[in-house]
Specification:
This protein is an alpha+beta fold. The protein has 2 domains: 2-124, Ribosomal Protein S5, domain 2, CATH 3.30.230.30; 127-192, Alpha-Beta Plaits. The chain has 5 helices and 11 strands, in the order βββαββαβαββαββαβ. The protein has helices spanning 30-40, 71-80, 100-118, 139-148, 174-185; strands at residues 2-5, 9-15, 18-26, 47-54, 57-61, 86-93, 121-124, 127-134, 152-159, 162-170, 189-192. The strands form 3 sheets. The protein has a 5-stranded antiparallel beta sheet with strand order 2-3-6-4-5, sandwiched between helices. The chain has a 4-stranded antiparallel beta sheet with strand order 9-10-8-11, with helices on one face. Strands 1-7 form a two-stranded antiparallel sheet. Strand 2 (9-15) and strand 3 form a beta hairpin. Helix 4 (139-148) packs antiparallel against helix 5. 32% of the residues are buried.
C-alpha cells in the first residue's frame, strides 16, 4: 500500500536562532515537483533545500549548504514516512549561530519529518482504463456494475448497434469487474483493446 499527502502542508521551527520552514505537497511527476520547488523559493530565505520521490524517481538538493546535510536528510524523511509522489522544501533563515554538519542534518531532516508526520495522508490507488462495447439492452446492467465496483465512466459514444464506453476502475478490481459484466450481461459486452 502506497501513501501520499492529501494536501500541501507546512511546519515551522526555530533551532539555535535559525528559522526552518518546511513545506510539502503531493505531486504527480518531476515537472510538477520542480515547479513546486521554484514556487517555494521566492522568499528571502538564505537556503531552499529540497527533495522529492515519485516511485523509483527521486532527487534532492542542498542549495549551498554543505554536501549531504540538507537534501539527503529531507529525502530520508520522505522515505522514512513511507510516502510517494511527494516534494518537500525546507527554507532556512540563518540566525547567526553555526549548527555544524550534524546539526544541519538533524534540523533539515527533522523539519521535513515533522511536517510530513503532521500532514493528512491518502492511499495511492492505481487505476486501469477499460474500453467496452455493449448492446443497448445491457446498458442498465453496466451502470449498476459501475456503482457496485466504484468505477467511473469517462466517455460514452452511441451508434445504431449500442454503445462504446471508456471506464476507469481501481487496477486491482479491473479483472473482477470485467468477469462480473460478462456474466451479468450474458456476453452482450466486448472488451476493446
Amino acid at each position: 500500500m502506497a501513501w501520499t499527502l492529501a494536501a500541501p502542508c507546512r511546519f515551522e521551527q526555530e533551532i539555535r536562532k535559525s528559522r526552518f520552514v518546511a513545506t510539502a505537497s503531493p505531486v504527480s511527476d518531476s515537472a510538477e515537483a520542480l515547479a513546486y520547488v521554484q514556487a517555494q523559493s521566492g522568499d528571502d530565505a538564505r537556503h531552499h533545500c529540497w527533495a522529492y520521490r515519485i516511485g523509483q524517481e527521486y532527487r534532492s538538493a542542498d542549495a549551498d549548504e554543505p554536501a549531504g546535510t540538507a537534501g539527503r536528510p529531507i529525502l530520508a524523511a520522505i522515505d522514512g514516512q513511507g510516502l510517494d509522489r511527494v516534494v518537500v522544501v525546507v527554507a532556512r533563515w540563518f540566525g547567526g549561530i553555526k549548527l555544524g554538519a550534524g546539526g544541519l542534518i538533524r534540523a533539515y531532516g527533522g523539519s521535513a519529518a515533522e511536517c510530513l508526520r503532521l500532514a493528512e495522508r491518502v492511499e495511492i490507488i492505481e487505476y486501469s482504463r477499460l474500453r467496452l462495447r455493449i448492446d443497448f439492452d445491457a446498458l442498465g446492467t453496466l451502470h449498476a456494475g459501475l456503482q457496485q465496483f466504484d468505477a467511473r465512466k469517462c466517455a460514452e459514444r452511441f451508434d445504431a448497434d449500442g454503445a462504446e464506453l471508456d471506464i476507469e476502475i481501481a487496477a486491482d478490481q479491473s479483472e473482477h469487474f470485467w468477469r462480473h459484466l460478462l456474466d451479468a450481461t450474458r456476453g452482450a459486452i466486448q472488451r476493446i483493446e
